[in-house]
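ZP: hey, is the uridine-diphosphate-N-acetylglucosamine complex queued? I don't see it on the tracker
AM: it wasn't, my bad. submitting now with these inputs:
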Amino acid sequence: MTQPITCIILAAGKGTRMKSRTHKVLHEVGGRSLLGHVLSNAAPLQPAQTVIVVGAGREQVEAAVAGMDGVKTALQEPQNGTGHAVMCARPALETEEGTTLILYGDVPFVPTAIMAQLIEAAAKGPAVLGFEAGNPGAYGRLLVSDTGSLERIVEAKDASADERAITFCNSGIMAVPTQQLFDLLDKVGNDNAAGEYYLTDIVALARERGLPIAALKAAEEDVIGVNSRGDLAAAEAVFQHSKRAEMMASGVTLQAPDSVYFYADTQIAPDVVIEPNVVFGPGVTVESGATVRAFSHLEGCHIDSGATVGPYARLRPGAQIGADAKVGNFVEIKNASLGVGAKASHLSYIGDAEVGDHANIGAGTITCNYDGYFKYRTSIGAHAFIGSNTSLVAPVTVGEGAITGAGSAISQDVEAGALALTRAPQANKPGWAARFMAMMAAKKSKKKSA
Ligand code: UD1
Ligand code: CA
C-alpha cells in the first residue's frame, strides 16, 4: 500500500544568494513560482497532505498557498539540516499512513512521472533520486555497492577524496514509507562536518535494518536547483526550451523558437503559426489555424481559429478575438471582443468594447473608455464601418451596418444603417497658400541679405 501520499516540501533555507526580499521559492519561472511548479508537478499524484517547511519568510509562503486544499506550512527555526526540516513537518501531518515524497521548493522541474516512480519504488524502504552530475561539487554522493544497491549517502563535506570522485549524486528528492521515515529520523544524529541532522543518513540506517533501498536516476535537467539569479535565469532557459519543444511536438509552428516566450499556462492548438519575438503572458489560449505575427505581446486573451494578430499587436486581459478576425499593427485590445471576421488593422485602442461580426475599425480609432473615474463600454454592431481616426466616447453604441465619418468624435448612439459625422465643414480659400508662401519666402531672403 502506497496510499495515502504525503508531500513534504523543504523550503526553510535562507536563500541568501538570491539577494531578495521575496522568498526564494516564490521567484518565478515561466511566470509561475518555483514552489508553484513543484506543487503543480505533484498535483496529479493527488497527495492527501502537503507540508511546506519554511523558516524566514513563512508569511509570504503562507499567503502564496492560502486557499489551496490540503497544503500547510510548518516552521523550522533554526535550520538544523534537511533531516531536522522533515521532522519539523511531522506535527502538521494528519496521517502517518502511506508514503512520503520529499521535495525541495527550489528544485522546480522534477517530472510527475519520476515522482510516481519514486513512490512506487518506496513500497518497503527508501527510494532516492540520483543523477549523474556534470560538476558534482557540493552534492551528496551516492555510494552504490558492487551488486548495484545503494549503501549510503555521503555529504561532500564529509567525503574522502575517493568518495568525492563519484559523480552519481543525490538530488535530495526521495520517497519513504511515512512511518519508517520518522522511525529512521529519530535515530539520525548530527555528528558530522556541518553539525546538521542529515536526511541522507536514513539510507545507511535503513541498510543496517536490512530494508530494501532503491536509487533511481534522473536527468540533471530534471533536478536543477535555484540558488541565485543566475540559476533562476538558467531554469527559465530550461523551462522555455522544453515548453517550445512541447509546443512544436503538439503541432504548433514556431518560426524562431528561441525568440518566443511562453507562460506556464499558455495553450496553443495545433496548426497555429507563431512568428518570431512573441511574448505570452498569463492566461492565453489560441485556437487552430490562427497566426500570431512578429513582436506581439499577449496576456489573458483568447484567439479563435483563423484569426491573425500582429505584427506588433498588444492583447491585454479580456481580449477575445473572433474567428478569422484581424488585429493589425500597433493595435491594443483590452477587455473587448472582436466578432467573426472583424478587423482592426492599424493603430487603434479598443477597450471595454464589443465589436460585431465583420465590423471594420479604421486606422487610429480610439475607444475613449475612461473619464478619470469610471470605465464605460462601447458597442459596435455587425458590419459597422468606423472611419479612420474616430473617437468613440463611451458609453456609446454604433448600430449594425452604421458608418462613422473619418475624424469624428462620436458621443451619441448611432442607429443601425446611419452615417454619423461630427466634422466641421471644410472651407477652401483659393490662392491663399500660394500668396502665403510667396510672402514668407520674400521675408526670409530679406533677412539673409541684411
Ligand atoms: C542536500 C543533500 C545533498 C544533496 C543536495 C542537493 C542533505 C544532508 N544533503 O544538500 O545530499 O546533494 O541537497 O541539492 O540532505 N533545507 C531546509 N532546512 C534546512 C536545510 C535545508 O529546509 O535546515 C532545504 C533548503 O531550503 C533546500 C533543501 O533543503 O530546499 C536543500 O538544502 P541545501 O542546504 O541546499 O542542501 P544541502 O543540505 O547542502
Ligand atoms: Ca541547494
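AM: back. The pocket of calcium ion (ligand 2) is lined by residues 225, 227 (CB under 6 Å).
ZP: great, adding it to the tracker
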